[in-house]
Design goal:
By secondary structure, this protein is of the alpha+beta class. It contains 2 helices and 9 strands, in the order ααβββββββββ. The protein has helices spanning about 5-10, 15-35; strands at about 50-55, 65-75, 75, 80-90, 95-100, 105, 110-115, 120-130, 135-140. The longest helix is centred in the N-terminal third of the chain and has 24 residues, at about 15-35. The protein starts with a helix and ends with a strand.
Length: about 140
């Protein structure tokens, strides 16, 4: 092998690099077009907020309403926030309820009342997505 000829040769590796770049561009285009064709970007759901609630008391047999306070976490649009549950009375009959919360948003420190004057029951604070695709129970209180 002639060492002088190796250093003076005019050929380069550009055809190999060109082929690698063309394959890479083809793969990227196929991924982008496939995403649009299969509507993979449309399946993103609204995620539930992270929030903590507290109840004023676990003894509501004296005829008082339950005051539920947003103590910590994300602000939540009240259009997506509900209080629901089951109330049991002394004759063991059950009354189920689902009530929306008034106002625009519920932030930490704000509260709302739920009529819960009974012997025992369960009250849940529930979030539902605007489009109804998902929901989450944020807090549950047994009394």
């Amino acid at each position: 092998m002639n060492i002088k000829k190796v250093f003076t040769e005019d050929r380069a590796v550009s055809p190999v690099i060109g082929v690698i770049l063309m394959v890479a561009i083809t793969v990227i285009l196929a991924a982008v077009i496939g995403t649009f064709v299969l509507n993979l970007g449309q399946e993103v759901q609204q995620s539930s907020p992270q929030a903590t609630f507290d109840i004023n008391s676990t003894d509501l047999t004296d005829g008082s309403n339950a005051t539920i306070t947003h103590t910590n976490g994300d602000s939540i649009e009240t259009a997506n926030l509900y209080a629901n549950g089951d109330i049991y009375n002394s004759s063991n009959s059950v009354t189920s309820f689902k009530r929306s919360i008034s106002g625009d948003t519920m932030s930490a420190g704000e509260s709302f009342e739920v009529e819960a004057n009974s012997d025992s029951g369960t009250i849940s604070v529930t979030w539902e997505a605007t489009d109804g695709s998902s929901s989450a129970t944020l807090q549950t209180f047994d009394y």
